[in-house]
DNA sequence: CCTATAGTTGCGGGGAACAACCAACTGAGG
DNA sequence: CCTCAGTTGGTTGTTCCCCGCAACTATAGG
């Protein structure tokens, strides 16, 4: 069976990773000094709504320690608010502040512009299709990688 | 105009980055102890044929210093051979050794298997289409990011 | 009391950029 | 020719960021 397709996919994925990193790291500080990874956290909070640190870490597929530090920084910058969970004194609920929303909004616009410039000759249909396929891909990968109960270890 | 599409694309891209990293880092050492980044260099060499360090760095979109160190390690492991460029005593030509080819071959098979498992329910047509779109995306991004003469700074 | 869970902090490591550097290839003038 | 300035190919040192693991605290729940 044609395993070349998968290999090609892996290769292209790898390149995309690099380019994406360049994009976010170069066209600098899209998130107004926050950087791409913290920006990802903002985006996750926006999409998923207020949630606990562990949930956020799970969403982002990073270790809780990583999420903890990132969250701490965002809180310090006033982009995220942390309030105690009324049901559990150990836990905290993280949520975007008004500032966080604003920063994220501007960032989305800006990165959108950049991508739009690069992809000026794309039809919207193509773009949508790509997004759709990527979404499916991510879903399946996620399931394969962590859906199986094996912990991240 | 619908900038949501681009934002979604950015978000999905980011997630893919994370998942890809997990995949290569977890299903561990696909390249027999070489690791994903060095593997990428092997793949680039395979696809582009023997080339100079600078060309390789350009392909991979990394700084020459990074490529230099990676190449050095691959040479040390005997997966890549470095021979002097007859036309330029400063330069060297990097090329895969037989071992390098073998390792890469096995790695491609293995990562292909993993992806295939995760994407078992995909049709080959879908996969091909995704690869096609990704390739196009990468091409355009690359052009936008570094095609413009502005240096990386 | 004992175990499991939410989070934090202290390591350590890997990937990458930047800058400073050496070496060798240019390409004018003299 | 010859030399010297400028350019280009590579390497090394430093630093930074992101990450995972391990150890720890504190609360929850039986």
UniProtKB/TrEMBL annotation, chains A, B:
Signal peptide: none
GO terms, molecular function: DNA-binding transcription factor activity
Biological-process GO terms, alphabetical: response to stress
Superkingdom assignment: Bacteria
HTH marR-type domain boundaries: 9-139
A family per Pfam: MarR
SUPFAM superfamilies, A to Z: Winged helix' DNA-binding domain
Name under which the protein is recorded: MarR family transcriptional regulator
Lineage summary: Bacteria, Bacillati, Actinomycetota, Actinomycetes, Jiangellales
